[in-house]
Specification:
The chain has 261 residues and is mainly alpha-helical. It is built from 9 helices and no strands.
């Protein structure tokens, strides 16, 4: 009986802690968003964060997309060959890339690179009292450090996903025409005939949400860090893990909302 009560109490404490953390993140996000419509807006910091996310993350996202398209074409062909449906390879590749794999993989790559970087940068500023110095200088740390990064991430990741979609489909086309024996014109025609505008738009909506999540969690974990170098390390790890989990969870929610019958 005592063990059952202890277990129930432990589960209750865990649930309360999770709800408290979710509420704190929600309030943090609301405060950051509120600064978007209130001047001043630090355009130089926004541009710096935008270039860091969009331009310097482009190589890893591009390579991930190309090889994902290649692997997807090979796996689809292997599976469809059992049912004599090899002609559906192009359809599966373009649908999977634009709806799911493009946004999700780009979000995870950016989470590993940018989420960790933002958490480490802001966390270092926290443990070295630079954030307190900003307050002393009458500069709002949320407006200066957080809002430009969140806006940049929300805008930059959909642009990265556009590139990822193109390169992912191109990777499938390369394998389809060079290794699987498809005619180039027929493969491209099947791709564009099957693709619909909502497939691309839904992926870009997901990308905007994922960019918001990655930058929000990176800034949140860094802003709340403490305890010196070890605290910064924990914040960096927490930013990547929490961003990745939230990306996958929100992907399911968005897919259920946008494609439910």
């Amino acid at each position: 009986m005592d063990r059952a009560l202890d277990l129930t109490a432990g589960l209750g404490r865990f649930a309360i802690a999770m709800l408290r953390g979710a509420g704190a993140v929600a309030l943090f996000a609301a405060e950051a968003i509120s600064h978007v419509v209130r001047p001043p807006f630090y355009g130089r910091l926004f541009l710096r964060a935008f270039l860091e996310i969009a331009w310097f993350s482009l190589p890893v996202v591009a390579l991930t997309a190309v090889f994902t398209g290649m692997v997807l074409a090979l796996q689809s062909y292997t599976g469809f060959a059992r049912f004599n449906a090899e002609g559906a390879v192009a359809n599966v590749v373009v649908l999977s890339i634009t709806r799911e794999l493009g946004p999700v993989l780009a979000g995870l790559m950016v989470a590993g690179r940018i989420g960790a970087a933002f958490a480490a940068e802001i966390g270092t500023m926290r443990v070295t009292d630079q954030i307190d110095a900003l307050t002393t200088l009458s500069t709002d740390p949320m407006k200066y450090l957080v809002t430009p990064r969140i806006v940049a991430g929300t805008i930059a990741l959909p642009l990265l996903v556009v590139v990822a979609n193109v390169l992912g489909v191109m990777g499938g086309w390369i394998i389809g025409t060079q290794q699987l024996g498809f005619a180039s014109g027929a493969y491209l025609k099947a791709t564009f005939d099957f693709l619909q505008g909502w497939d691309v738009i839904s992926g870009l909506i997901k990308a905007g949400a994922f960019g918001f999540i990655v930058t929000l969690m990176g800034c949140w974990c860094g802003y709340r860090s403490g305890g010196g170098a070890q605290g910064v390390g924990r914040a960096t790890t927490a930013a990547v893990v929490s961003s990745s989990i939230l990306i996958l969870a929100s992907d399911y929610v968005l897919t259920a909302v946008m494609f439910s019958r």
